[in-house]
Design brief:
Length: 585
């Protein structure tokens, strides 16, 4: 009896334990399938649901005539979900073979990406053309490309390539605009991204994909520039020809509307193609910086116009006031000579321009005194950025009369453009102020901003009046007169009266002093004199055949001005040939 009772007890214990185990399992099932079913379902669904960003279409950049300079072309990235290929009836090798000839990629290379059953994503190709993406769509429809998808993304293209590259800038591989307009207006151009939710069938099937747009992407603004691609092409062509002809290292040309400050052309050499900017190599530290706004140089004799404008405006000189040009002058313990070491005897202020007299400029600067001279230099915008809407502008370098590095002789050398550093745009803008009856305009390159909300027009901005109207007109008349007095009449434009000033500046050494052989040849001028439509600045760096601005830069000005008279249909000034420039330094 005792053994039987003992056996019955064991059976009951086993039954109790089994029941307890069953209850635990049942409890787990209830917990999993009832209490946690929503969370588990959401987790399972999440494995096959993708919340992605919708990349907005980047805004286009167009020139003043609405010629496309930069645009976003939708191209497809070819993507794959390798885990969806298993169970589809197709092998990774078969899918790779179908795609290989379309993408121009060896099938075995694609198969390495596709033959990974646990992987949910692989990028097979970026930016394929519409022809290729259409072929892939047909493969998908026929069932030959399971797990393959196309993600259409706006890629940046530049239809004119190198034309205006430094003004336009480029879109970098990091996904943002760099330099030029692309960099300066990055926030407007890029737009605002949206959100897209997509869900694919689980367990490797290819039952299709559903997509929901949660937030619509906002496209970037389109920008209309003041740049005219025709004028830009003319400027770049003539600049390149001059650099080759005179064995120069680089150069810059700016064409500006003096009445508004609009930049019509801004050319630099060397340059790059915005479509393939990575291939551009340059010896300078920042290869993509725009030399027209970021490279400082000593302007030389072109700066004499600023000295004369200030002295005329202050009433210190008149156009007919005379001085004795003996070929050299001592100031601040330093002897200063004319560029050609010639003496011109009794001369008036127009002769000073015609002969590009350093002695005359020192004479005028000394009469102004340092306080008044630098007051006008600052008023014309030197020593500070112009505020142009381009990325990377610097402010130049104006000596501070209160510093330890300023000497009395600095006033003399600064008066004829040595020992003071400017950018090409600063000088062009300052001369444009003289042409514009003494009003300094802020230079700009974007004239319209187009968004979904409408069009915003950028109005010309007057910064300040620099000199009186009478002063500006008197100096313009003196420049036109100086052209007729110059000793050589090599560069003529029949029927048109234009005026300007040459410059041949030395290049400072980092260790002090100047290069013995290297110069910067420049010219800044405008036309027609009676109603100026344009200001043109030409700067040629390190010419090796000839050093002088009169022989290197002035012919470039003449060639561009001649084209502009025809392009703008500007009628002749007179029936006589008039001098295009004075040909001194």
């Amino acid at each position: 009896m005792g053994g039987k009772a003992m056996g019955t007890g064991r059976i009951r214990l086993i039954q109790a334990l089994a029941l307890l185990g069953a209850l635990v399992v049942a409890g787990e099932l209830v917990w999993l399938h009832i209490l946690e079913s929503d969370q588990l379902a959401a987790k399972a669904q999440q494995q096959h649901r993708n919340d992605t960003q919708i990349i907005p279409q980047r805004g286009s950049i167009l020139d003043a005539n609405h010629t496309l300079l930069a645009t976003a072309e939708y191209l497809a990235d070819v993507e794959a979900a390798p885990n969806q290929i298993r169970g589809s009836g197709r092998s990774a090798q078969a899918v790779a073979s179908e795609l290989g000839h379309l993408l121009g990629v060896p099938p075995e290379q694609l198969a390495e990406h596709l033959n990974q059953p646990t992987k949910t994503y692989a990028l097979l190709a970026k930016g394929v053309t519409p022809h290729v993406s259409d072929s892939i769509k047909r493969l998908k429809q026929s069932g030959k490309a399971p797990g393959i998808s196309l993600n259409f993304i706006p890629y940046r293209t530049y239809p004119l390539g190198m034309i205006g590259a430094h003004v336009v800038g480029f879109y970098s591989q990091s996904g943002s605009g760099q330099y030029g307009v692309e960099g300066y207006y990055e926030e407007l151009l890029r737009g605002a991204p949206g959100r897209r939710l997509s869900s694919s069938a689980p367990f490797g099937s290819d039952a299709g994909e559903a997509t929901w747009v949660l937030e619509t992407a906002e496209p970037g603004a389109d920008l209309i520039l003041t740049l005219d691609s025709t004028v830009q092409h003319i400027a770049e062509r003539e600049l390149e020809a001059a650099i080759e002809q005179f064995g120069a290292s680089s150069g810059t040309v700016i064409v500006m509307d003096p009445g508004t400050g609009a930049i019509v052309a801004m050319a630099n050499r060397p340059t790059y193609d915005s479509n393939s900017y990575q291939e551009f190599h340059s010896p300078v530290q920042d290869a993509f910086a725009n030399p027209a706004i970021s490279m400082q140089y000593e302007p030389g004799s072109t700066f004499k116009l600023i000295t004369l404008a200030g002295a005329l405006d202050a009433g210190i000189i008149t156009p007919t006031m005379t001085f004795i040009d003996s070929g050299s002058i001592e100031y601040g313990g330093v002897e200063i000579k004319n560029w050609n070491e010639k003496a011109h005897g009794e001369s008036d202020m127009t002769d000073l321009i015609a002969h590009s007299s350093n002695v005359g400029a020192v004479y005028v600067g000394s009469m102004m005194g340092k306080d008044l001279f630098y007051e006008y230099v600052s008023a014309f915008g030197f020593g500070a950025p112009t505020g142009v809407d381009l990325w990377g502008e610097v402010g130049g370098d104006v000596p501070d009369p209160g510093s330890l590095y300023w000497y009395p002789s600095s006033l003399a050398t600064n008066a004829f453009g040595q020992g003071i550093a400017v950018t090409p745009l600063q000088l062009a803008t300052a001369v444009a102020a003289i042409v514009n009856d003494g009003v300094l305009m802020r230079p700009f390159v974007v004239q319209e901003i187009h968004t979904e909300a409408g069009v915003r027009r950028i109005e010309p901005t007057a910064v300040r009046r620099v000199v009186r109207t009478e002063t500006a007109r008197a100096l313009v008349s003196m420049l036109a007169d100086a052209s007729k007095r110059s000793e050589s009449r090599m560069h003529l434009i029949e029927g048109y009266e234009i005026a300007g000033k040459t410059g041949t500046s030395s290049i400072p050494l980092e260790t002090g002093g100047y290069h013995e052989d290297l110069t910067i040849a420049s010219y800044v001028g405008f036309g027609p004199v009676e109603n100026p439509r344009f200001v043109i600045l030409v700067k040629i760096d390190h010419p090796t055949v000839e050093p002088w601005g009169s022989l290197v830069a002035a012919p470039v000005f003449r060639a561009i001005a001649s084209e502009l008279f025809r392009y703008y249909h500007i009628p002749p000034s007179t029936s006589q040939q008039t001098i295009a420039r004075e040909d001194t330094n």
